[in-house]
Amino acid sequence: MAKDHLNVLNALDVAKTQWYHFTAIVIAGMGFFTDSYDLFCISLVTKLLGRIYYYEEGSNKPGSLPSNVAAAINGVALCGTLAGQLFFGWLGDKMGRKRVYGITLMLMVICSIASGLSFSKDPKAVVITLCFFRFWLGFGIGGDYPLSATIMSEYANKKTRGAFIAAVFAMQGFGILAGGMVAIIVSSVFSAYYPAPPFSADPVLSTIPQADYVWRIILMFGALPALLTFYSRMKMPETARYTALVANNAKQAAEDMSKVLQVEIVAEPEKIQELEKRRGNDFGLFTTQFFRRHGLHLIGTATTWFLLDIAYYSQNLFQKDIFSAIGWIPPAKTMSALEELFKIARAQTLIALCSTVPGYWFTVALIDRMGRVKIQLMGFFFMTAFMFGLAIPYHHWTLNGNQIFFVVLYSFTFFFANFGPNATTFIVPAEIFPARLRSTCHGISAAAGKAGAIVGAFGFVYAESTIGVRYTLIILGVINFFGMMFTFLVPEPNGKSLEEMSGEAEEETTATTESTLEAGLGVRT
């Protein structure tokens, strides 16, 4: 540890795990719970929306969303998320993490509720209003990515920082799980009170009028966990690293962290002033200095996140079609609308419970032992292997008796995504960039990821319908392989302070050394 390091930052780096760490994980994690719930629950209700709004009377098959409408409903929140990541990432460095944090949460709450209140029963009006509110919901969700990661990294100690940031991100798994469970409960309750025949018995009565409430309730539930954490978010102090290194207020940083850590921390305003005078690399994002020091790192974090999310979101969005293809979900004609929703939700919940959620917590347990880069390389490698294992003998997996093995392999791709690059691509950008650009660079990396998710949501709806599931899986395997290659651009932050990784420790050491020399020589500064 550098002896010239600011006292308040030293105190954070060496702090033992305390109650405030867990409080910060819960406050930031509930935002991620809501994020993932809102982004993934839409894939559960798309078939129900098709039955309600796009059934043609006299048709011998249930209504389904036109491909362009399905792509818009699935992808519009991702477009909003991309914009929100860039905007709020930048704003978090300009205004401070805490001030922006409450804005994103209220946006998520309001738009979650509004997306379930889409006006009219006319299909076009419902889709337009649903897409409008889900865009702005995504915009709020986008802000939560850079802010939650940055706040957690700046609050955490050096020894267990990776586990703390991973624990925040792991709440995404519980959000996906909750989406499935809420859909199971709501569809079961409505089915019990309003029984309906399968489509083959009565095409009209198989979709009860009350089904229009079901999808709205599922979407609106996402507002509840976010609302519960709003007060706590507003009570959190600004991070000491932002206050000291960006706002240059050492006194306030020391006061805030003295309360949080419950120890006496001496403010060092003179060291901050000296640092300001001597800082020779206070460079901006669009400078040659930034590119020389962090350019390849930003390319690495952005590219790996982009490639991962193409595969990850494609898997999530078309998993219900895979379940249908292997016979886990019976043909739509043999079910009522709510029965179909129940079975899609049950399948997704099973995958989340057996592979998605455990993968996240394996990362939490092992990231500070194995390191970020090893976990990311391992995750991409096994995702590539399992994708090819699914795709090459694809016909074999569709035969009776083999479907369960297909689902097991498919589950392993989710497990190694989450015990792998889905977690590490979120963690690393919050650790390797300077405090004054940390939120912005995380936002850029996350936005690259969402660009990949948009490719997945829009591109693979098209790919699946034109080249089929098998060749789609082969393409995803190739994408994962390239993700493994680009991981070599990413540095390993394990066991190092944020200032060591970003180069700010060098600035502090240089400033203090020069100050000491000048004082010894009798030079006034």
Feature tags:
525 residues; 0% strand; 22 helices
Detailed description of the structure:
- Residues about 510-525 have low confidence and may be disordered.
- The chain is an all-alpha fold and about 525 residues long.
- The radius of gyration is 25 Å and the shape is globular.
- The longest helix is centred in the last third of the chain and has 49 residues, at about 440-485.
- Helix content is about 75%, strand content about 0%.
Radius of gyration: 25 Å
Strand content: under 5%
Helix content: over 70%
Shape: globular
Structural class: mainly alpha
**What characterizes the major β-sheet?**
none
Low-confidence segments: 510-525
DSSP strand count: 0
Total count of helical runs of at least 4 residues: 22
Spell the H/E element sequence.
Answer: HHHHHHHHHHHHHHHHHHHHHH
Mean pLDDT: 84
- Termini gap: 27 Å
Family: Belongs to the major facilitator superfamily. Phosphate:H(+) symporter (TC 2.A.1.9) family.
Membrane topology: Multi-pass membrane protein
GO molecular function, one term: symporter activity
Region (Disordered): 497-525
Give the arrangement of secondary structure elements.
Blueprint: H1 7-14, H2 19-53, H3 67-95, H4 97-115, H5 123-155, H6 161-193, H7 211-220, H8 223-228, H9 230-235, H10 240-246, H11 250-261, H12 269-278, H13 288-317, H14 319-325, H15 337-370, H16 372-391, H17 394-398, H18 403-418, H19 421-427, H20 438-486, H21 498-502, H22 504-521
Helix pairs in contact: 1-11, 2-3, 2-5, 2-6, 2-7, 2-15, 3-4, 3-5, 3-20, 4-5, 5-6, 5-20, 6-7, 6-15, 6-19, 10-11, 12-22, 13-19, 13-20, 15-16, 15-18, 16-18, 16-19, 16-20
